[in-house]
Amino acid sequence: xxxxxxxxxAWLRDQLAEHAGVTFTYRIGNLASAPLTGTxxxxxxxxxxxxxxxxxxxxxxxxxxxxxxxxGGQVQTPARGHRVEIxxxxxxxxxxxxxxxxxxxxxxxxxxxxxxxIHLAKVx
Length: 124
Prior knowledge:
The chain is an alpha+beta fold and 124 residues long. It has one domain (2-122): Thrombin, subunit H (Beta Barrel), CATH 2.40.10. The chain has one helix and ten strands, in the order H-E-E-E-E-E-E-E-E-E-E. It has one helix spanning 2-20; strands at residues 22-28, 31-32, 36-50, 53-64, 70-71, 74-75, 83-88, 91-97, 106-108, 116-122. Strands 1-3-4-10-8-7 form a six-stranded antiparallel beta barrel. A two-stranded antiparallel sheet has the order 5-6. The longest helix is centred in the first third of the chain and has 19 residues, at 2-20. It is globular.
């Protein structure tokens, strides 16, 4: 049963990337990945609240296969300060890996570990 689930998750991940994917480059300092494919999403995070006013921050999320984040010949774990470059609407946009106020910068989307969500904040 576990192999069937793992195979199903891999198929769904590949379908998501193929039909809703964007090409991105992952950077750690001067190291850059080969072009990769992931899916953009958004998250709303409540970052402050006083009386009847709420401050909500909208971030980008990138869903991708963690096994493909290879820089310098090694699979990398996303961490604060790493950068993601994506061309959206013909303009290069740069995002930085940043956790929401209440969490980690990355989390696995499903139990087999084949899909992860990286929280990003636009820096350029």
